[in-house]
């Protein structure tokens, strides 16, 4: 895909962070935009901003863990714009803590959003996209955690590794059917989003004020050259779609990942170290 003018993009988790940037980028390319998020107030603000620029927008509060709700959202998107050419299954949450500290309810909530949210998006939108026989593209938001593990992130890592598996299988299946639909896995490194804020909040403790959290987030982002903005991430995503790339990395970590895969092939026991981006 190269020219997006007049086509339709769907973005879940679009009220903030990467999802918001993807929606804004799609609008800047002349696309109709369908946006969805649980945060209805932030979603409404984004919708108003886009409409003020003359963008055709449909916004809906949405819990992606509900298959029926996602199906209803998809039906409305197709009703309004007839076809969907870009689908961004982006909604996700993060929970931190050692694997044995997480309750069953915590696991179920995170997996229902991070994994089943992607599944529900695929099931609700893809059949009609295939039937349309038009060039289209699906981007599922994974993470560096789709490829590497990290201490204190068992739930998140499990979910993002699952998203990787789903996305790879989907790509192969569409190729076998010779469907004109590309598939990408977005694997962001450090991006200045609400998820990054959640990590900082946990590090500061429950007594931290909003001001403390905001200051710590600003200091962390400013002090770490690896952090990029959501807008930069969105630019990388659209460039990858144009080039029909499966893997979308926002940060290089070739040396780190090669060391990890070499250890696997050599049968070495896992060991933990911070991911290095270079």
TrEMBL record:
Transmembrane segments: none annotated. Keywords: NADP, Oxidoreductase. It holds the Pfam family adh_short. PROSITE patterns: ADH_SHORT. It comes from the Bacteria. Belongs to the short-chain dehydrogenases/reductases (SDR) family. This is SDR family NAD(P)-dependent oxidoreductase. The lineage of its organism: Bacteria, Pseudomonadati, Pseudomonadota, Gammaproteobacteria, Cellvibrionales.
